[in-house]
User: What shape does this take?
Amino acid sequence: MDFFSGILQGFNTSFTPTNLLYCFIGVFIGTLIGVLPGLGPVGTISILLPATFSLGPVAAIILLAGIYYGAMYGGSTTSILVNIPGEAASVITCLDGYQMARKGRAGAALATSAIASFIAGTVGVIGLMFLAYPLAKTALKFGPPEFFSLMCLGLSILTFLAHGSMFKSLSMAVVGLLLSFIGIDILSGVPRFTMDLVDLMDGVGLVPIAMGLFGISEVILNLERGFNREVFETKIEGLLPNREERRRSRGPILRGTILGFLLGILPGGGAVVASLISYGVEKKVSHDPEKFGTGMIEGVAGPEAANNSATASAFIPLLTLGIPPNIVLAVLLGAMMIHGLQPGPLLLKEHPEVFWGTVTSMYIGNVFLLILNLPLIGLWVKILKVPYKFLFPLIILFCIIGAYSLNNTSFDILVMGFCGLAGYFMKKFEYEPAPLLLAFVLGPMMEQAFRQSLALSHGSFTIFITRPISAFSIGLAILLVVSNFLPSWSKRRLSISNE
Amino acid sequence: MINVNAIPSFILIIVGVVFIVSSLKLGIGNIGSPGPGFVPLGAGGLLIILTLGTIVETFFKRERKSRPKIFEGSQWWVMLSVPLSLLVYALLLDIMGFIPCTFLILVFLFKIWGRQSWKVVLGASMLITGFTYLLFSYFLKINFPIGLFEF
Assistant: This one.
């Protein structure tokens, strides 16, 4: 199938009434959880995954992908109105967005954020479409050593960008790998580390781990902190930014879109890093850098464009190489595999309807999001005012249902509870859960690629450095890890992660 | 003053050792044909090395925080109430079924944390239980254990 007939097929697929409905539901839920602090896209995709079993794979992936990019839109609403980011990628929007709200420009900030997100999201999808196709074709030539090295690179970038100690981040990645080895070995059929428990024969579930580490642990921490959350009381009027604000937003949106797109492709990069760097760039190019943090529209437009563009381009490594560049897409990868799809170069060949259907649905999803975010802003503000003491029992209940319904076993609820407690302690002791989850998802693929590579080379490790792409990826991965131990690089890394 | 990383490091080293021992039992094969224990053995060893690295790093950077500081403001019963309620829920789910278990956990969470009147607690718990059962069981076709309602 050539490029243009692929796009046509994609639009045919995504424009069916069922898929339009699921796209709408996905972005609606995404916006909702983006608005509500405490339940991110990782938890939501995990919870809703079992509910998609009755759907076809295209509808399921369209819905789950919609949750992901929808959350990026919704996350900025809380940043602007409550000064609490609904999503990690909207952290930086708090700085100027909230100050704009305090100055009575909440409407303009919300509208700029939505418009920037729409433009960047759409441009990102166009880029995704044009780049994914040739990359998937090229990736068909990749062998196990290339895949292994690329996955190592993804993990090392994620650990490099994680907060605090690199040793701790790498330890968490290794714990994720070890957990992924539990269950029957794919190559030999031998049960490993199952402690003779039948429930562990198929391995530990991704959903209970994800919801424990990111959902339950967050609930415990929020309960500990108390329920204080106040929505800034302001009348949201004058939704459209004025001429001056529109003029000042153009450059940041353009720069944010390009920057976000490039950073989103990088394994381990993604929306959070893109929004932070975009803010830094806007501050650097601005004539009034000292005014940043006091309600500059550039500080909203740039990062919001960057995180949405990165969200779209993050699908490139997932759909073409089968390598998720961030945690949310790692969970989406798990979802695709449960639906019998193997993301990677063969996806385009074997399931073009899923590939093109998902990509084209993102255009439609962006239009839905613009409609949802601007006229319905009042609704989101009302939802924001729901007290956390009413919200958290629901979050726990949805986590329980999500964990249970995947395999219909209460063992998964126990695993989730244990991971929730472990996640709480990890946050207290400053161990990042993100590398653990990404490594857990990549673990089986990494191990298989590693063992196949060694079998191919008759036991020679040089196979990883004699192939150019593999050598480049593994070299870069090693450089990133080693650079942390050089004092100047270590300081730079800390400043990036602390920002 | 207790090194803040001592406890997690100790646990991680134990995990590493357990995986190494189990991997050796599984069989590691050889480099040309790695066995099921080959990669886990390496990963277990790597975990120990990285954990030792964390200990050394903490020692050199002198970032020793006392344990009480990390858990300053922590309430142990808060921390334990959620996982414990999940444990009880998981143990009772197959016996009692989805509806009574969900109702009870919601009553517990609303009453303990929401500090609402019994009327609100019981009403909200009943409504949410009914709504989630309808949504997930009837519309999304998820099979929940029937338990006590099996007649």
Observations:
- Chain A touches chain B through 58 residues (CB under 8 Å).
- Chain A has a mean pLDDT of 84.
- The first strand of chain A starts at residue 183 and ends at 184.
- Residues 3-498 of chain A form one domain.
